[in-house]
Amino acid sequence: GEDVEQSLFLSVREGDSSVINCTYTDSSSTYLYWYKQEPGAGLQLLTYIFSNMDMKQDQRLTVLLNKKDKHLSLRIADTQTGDSAIYFCAERGTSGGGNKLTFGTGTQLKVEL
Amino acid sequence: DVKVTQSSRYLVKRTGEKVFLECVQDMDHENMFWYRQDPGLGLRLIYFSYDVKMKEKGDIPEGYSVSREKKERFSLILESASTNQTSMYLCASSLSAHEQFFGPGTRLTVL
Q1: Backbone angles phi, psi at B83, to 5 degrees
Q2: For A90, which residue in chain B has the nearest alpha carbon?
Q3: For A14-65, what is each residue's pLDDT tens digit?
Q4: Is the dihedral of CA B26, B38, B7, B81 positive or negative?
Q5: Is A15 on the interface with B (CB under 8 A)?
Q6: Quick check: A98 contacting B, CB < 8 Å?
């Protein structure tokens, strides 16, 4: 079955770059996603990347995909205190009619002043 | 704006009680999902539904059932609540596979 792994915690200083990493096992993944969960809220989609792409940039966010190693990363440039949240990696495979996402364990990002 | 609402933010129930968690979305989405979120385990899919009266088991369906009588409403049922079902429950809906829209969650405590 699908498995998605992330490290649990990351701490950075305000203004630095943050890099959150994710590994997945399903080689049939078609899309990979990053979701953000702020305290007391549900998840919100940040960005996604198609599996035949290597990189996607969206303002302060850069997603890198190494399909050979099944490794996905999210880089946040100029990290701000408002970026403190839990970040979830998710992959969409072929199970469940392609509508099912498998989420990772989540990485708690703490931004310090 | 898409809105997904969940009936309660916090719920406390006793072991053995039957528990209903309700989720309503206002965007005519076909797909609806129930997850539980536990520290260190991330989100795990309990059940999902891609149409009215249709349901599919997720990764951890044991001890749960669901009901989708109307397109906008997806209910999660704990037939006999147990302490190991204490968790945060998140509902989501989607039109396509790309973006799932999440509710704020229900924190359930089973005593």
Answers
A1: -60, -30
A2: B43
A3: 999 999 999 998 877 788 999 999 988 899 999 999 988 899 999 999 999 9
A4: positive
A5: no
A6: yes
